Amino acid sequence: MAAGTPVSVDCGDCIWLTSDPDVIRARERIRTLATTIGFSTADQALVETTIAELAISMLTYARSGEIRLEVVTEGDLTGLRVVARDWGLAEERFELSNVQHLVDDVDVQRRTGRGTVVTITKWLRSTSAAA
After folding, report:
1. Which of 85, 87, 90, 77 is nearest to 121 (CA)?
2. Per the structure, how many domains does the chain have?
3. Structural domain for 68, as ranges
4. Mean of the pLDDT values across residues 74-99?
5. CB 128, CB 77: distance < 8 Å
């Protein structure tokens, strides 16, 4: 993200994670949102896999957390941003090696004693809607 670039965010959805059915709900919501803004079927699967990996990690290490889904616009780009937050111990968590190659941007903030915040962004490619 270029410094000084205006970013528009629609904070449309927040999902509380406390059990396995919440992971399924998160996957369904991200797929619906990805479809709505025009992601290709392949990119829909990528963001769905990413959110599932984050949610499972949160349940495994922190036992609960929240996932916020956002549609973001930066200049001519539109994308999905997922902010995953938990309040567990920050030392042992979030296997991101499985998701880092699936999205465009990943930011991890581990806060010792206060949990972890993972922010991922997947941008809509101009060819995505045609695929």
Report:
1. 77
2. 1
3. 9-123
4. 78
5. no
